[in-house]
Write a structure and sequence with these properties.
Shape of chain B: extended
Radius of gyration of chain B: 22 Å
CATH class of the largest domain in chain A: Alpha Beta
CATH superfamily of the largest domain in chain A: P-loop containing nucleotide triphosphate hydrolases
CATH topology of the largest domain in chain A: Rossmann fold
Order of helices and strands of chain B: HEHHHEHHHH
Structural class of chain A: alpha/beta
Number of strands of chain B: 2
CATH architecture of the largest domain in chain A: 3-Layer(aba) Sandwich
Structural class of chain B: mainly alpha
Oligomer: heterodimer
Largest interface: A-B, 28 and 23 residues
Shape of chain A: elongated
Strand content of chain B: 5-15%
Number of strands of chain A: 7
Distance between the termini of chain B: 80 Å
Order of helices and strands of chain A: HHEHEHHEHEEEHHEHHHH
Number of helices of chain B: 8
Strand content of chain A: 5-15%
Largest sheet of chain B: 2 strands, antiparallel
Radius of gyration of chain A: 22 Å
Number of helices of chain A: 12
Number of domains of chain A: 2
Number of domains of chain B: 1
Strand order of the largest sheet of chain A: 2-3-6-1-7
Helix content of chain B: 40-55%
Strand order of the largest sheet of chain B: 1-2
Amino acid sequence: MMSKSHPSMSPDLSEAEASTQLPGWLEPETVDYGRYGLLQPPFSLSTDPSFMYLSDGHKMGLSKVSYMIQKRQGLSVILGAIGAGKTMSGAWLYRRYQQLGNHRVAFLEEAQLPLTDRRSSLPFLRRVAAEFDLKRPRSISDQMGVLRSFMVSSFRERQNVVLIIDEAQKLYGSHLELIRQMLNFESRGAGKLLQVVLIGTPELRTVLSNEPTLESRVAVHAYLDALTREDTGSLIGFRLMVAGRRESLFTPAAVDDIYLISSGVPRQICALGQLALIEAHTRDANLIDRPLVRQVVDAYYPHLADRLRGEEL
Amino acid sequence: MTKRGRKAPRRRVLGANWEAQQPRRGRPPAERPRKATRLYLTEVQRDHWLALGEALAPLGADRIDVAELVVAYLEQGLHEIQSGLTGDGQTVPVGVVDLKSLYFLLDLKPPVGATSQYNITMFTETREKLSVMTVRLQSVFRATWSQVFGLAVENMHQALSRRRGRRNLIDQADSMADLREVLFQPQQLEFELR
């Protein structure tokens, strides 16, 4: 039986995109995952790097960005549309470099950026210092001094300092100027003392173009595009595998529909996958096929049903 | 007498000398030891391999020299990548999770399609170099000889195609020595910004 659609339960995709939190109607408890051979929710929207599926676009971006980080080239930029996996990529890099042992990494998410007096430089610097567990004096020059001595001592200890900033398109000019100043810390012949990865939506490019001195320092731009049809199937299969299921759960036709509705945006693929799983559980279905996905689309995304026009049921 | 009490075979000095003076039959042994290597390449890789052979033939390069060149060039590229890494004992950056990522890092198109078997003759030193690279990449993402050689072919093909567009490198080089001089200059990986 089709679960009844409630106004608060019929998320507009744009709303789903805006939030990475799992809404109440997607509570993991609503599905008996063990029934499908799953140990945990496969399509959780939270940022868990172990669920990160690396498409060709992600591989291309991350291979170059990581090369630039380890080569101490300074500034790298990762751009991508909403839901393309930018934060996940940042979390993935953060975890990888933490595991490596010879990197001191900080991941500055949007929520961690100072809310009060956002334009001011000092709170931003203090935030960066806090991420590296450094002292936080009350003047910009002192704070820069602390950061600089930290970078120099890290370099002497053969440690690479990496700062990953998510939602970087929301940074102000004063923040970007500070980043530029920090990127000036350099060792002779051995590269930059600080590696910065700015992650943001395509607006970040406009923001950077207003700061030409910083823009000219960008070593590499990486773009995270939407997934292809093949990648959509692989993402679903990969997430199911990480969650514990070896066999396929979605029929190829169901994956086709998910791809058409989501336009290959990973977050939307996961949202649809989760809804389809809940629906399958409600109907006691063992396999998620095209009619089931269509019912989910009709119930939750009726305004997107046009995208399926022409596809035979 | 030997330890077991048997007679040692008689040395036939005259006979041995006579044999050594006789002209040898068949192809004379090569100056540098070589060996045919069975590799599995995609159609594109094979086409690029043949194109490299044709392009470098005017410089006096045989196929075996081309094999040596492509392997040495990839070895330099991997060394360049590895030498810049902060991590001790790391072969590739953390973002390079498989061979495809390595293709992307080198700005190459990853191989597609089925592979076919080819025999490519290589110098023993070339085989050793290829073997060392393969072992290194195998420890990271299970690369095979064929995959590494395919990567080497693509890498060289791209290097020559890029430079050809600007300065027509092969036409300008008078010999393989000239070409090597340009190819093996210390250089950093360049990425084309989109």
